[in-house]
Every structure is written in structure tokens, then in C-alpha cells.
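The instructor's notes for this session suggest beginning with a concrete chain rather than abstract definitions. Hand out the sequence below and ask the class to guess, before any prediction is shown, which regions might be ordered.
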Amino acid sequence: MLYLVLVSFIWAFSPGLIKGRLVGVDPTAVGVIRLALALVVFLPFFRPRGLRRATVLRLAIIGAVQFGLMYLMYLSAFTYLPAYAIGLFTITTPLYLVVIDAIACRRWQPSYTLAALLAIAGAAVMVAKGGDLGSAWLRGFLLVQLSNLCFAAGQVAWRRERAQVPTTTSDAALFALPYLGAFLITALVSTITTDWNALHFTPSQLITLIYLGAIASGVAFFLWNFGASRVGTGTLAVLNNLKVPLTVTCSLLFFGEQADLTRLACSFACFGLALIVAGRTTP
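After discussion, reveal the predicted structure:
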């Protein structure tokens, strides 16, 4: 669980960096660059010896879905929705993860569902707000839900596929494959949507992209999946939303923004209760 909490802290800084330094940059290009850098980080660790072709293909497909398609849907939603609405609509991921895992395992754990709902409530306390989303909200909402589904499905698929690979093969030796799949799918889409010749980055933007690609995507996604394969489904579902109150906390402490401390305390209380419930499984 420590890895998942650590990654949640890393991701908590990303919105402030993106908002402050990458405004106006083609979001698809940002996704391609981030995933390309993530791939470069893990290529030196790649050890394909002993892997079956079917395993290689499945791992690449998992990455294409969990990271590639997820980014494409998520970033596209910004065209139709304000940031607060996207933050609100992303909080359904825990429930998707529990449902997908139950289907894959053919077993339903009511405690996991309750834990996921508590995690959704804990995140909703922080991001819910009034406002007119406009006529395009439905399209944006559907894009975010597809993004959530991709990320949830990728986590479940990684956990199951990793269990089939010998423990003598480290996670780091495998992880270039998911990033390769993710990079290829985003790069393919960018050939249609991105005018690469028109892109010009300032030094500050380049530094931000390197950090987001190597750390917030590369190292963080790896640690997330590493941790995901070592905790229960309920705990994983809950921690999918922990980044929401942590983002607010980081914005309060490091970016000088305002926050409702009462709502923040209620949010963390919900997460604490959700983790307790997640630890209770039915025989």
C-alpha cells in the first residue's frame, strides 16, 4: 500500500504543474511525449528473454488501454468540460475496478463495493461544486467515464497477467512493454490530431514535460501497478481516489491556493473508513 500512497502524492502535484506551465499545449502531444519518456526510462531494464509472444502482446495491449487510451480520452474531455467537472467525473474509477474484478474473478465482494462507494464519497466531498457545465457536458462525461474504465481495466488485467509471469522476472523487466503499447496508440492518434511543426516549448515547459514523463508517468505508473499487484482489490479501489484530497492538500501547502479544511477532514475520514471496510472480506 505504501507504493500506492507514494504515487498518489506524486500525482497530487501534477495538476498544479500542468495548469501553471502547459496551458495551451496540444494535450495529445503532451500524452505522446509523456509516454515516450516513460518508455525511455524503462527500456534499459527490459528483459524479454523467456517471455512468450502471447505474453508480450498482452502486456503491450494492457499498456495501450490503461495508459494510452486512458490519456487520449481524459485529455480530450478538457475540450468539453471545465477542470472541476473532470475532477468530479473521474471519481467513479473505484467502482469500475471492483465491478471489472468481480466479473474477472466471478465472485462479488460486498465489502469491496462499500469501500469503493466510500472512496467515491470521500473524493466527491472535495470536488463537487455547482455550476453550469454547458450543452457539451454529456460528451465530456462519457469521455471521462471511458478513461476511468480504461484505467480500471488495465489495473485488473495487469494484476492477472503479472501473476502468470514467473517471479524471477521483475516488474521493471516487463514494464517497457505496457509503455510501448501506450506510446504506439497515442502516437498513431497524434498523426491525425497534432500539428507537430507548430509546437514550440519554452525551457520551463520542457522541464515540466521531462518531469511529468519520467516521474509522474514513468516511475509513478510503474510503482502504481507494482503496488496494485500486492494489495487487495478493495484497498486498490479506495486508493484510486486518494489523489483527490492529496491534490487539494498539496495545492493548499505548496501552491498557495485556498481549501475548505472541514471538507478536507471529512474526505480523509471517508478514506480511512473505506480502507477499514476494504480489509474486511467475506469468506
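Then share the key points. DSSP finds 13 helices and no strands in the chain. The mean pLDDT is 86.
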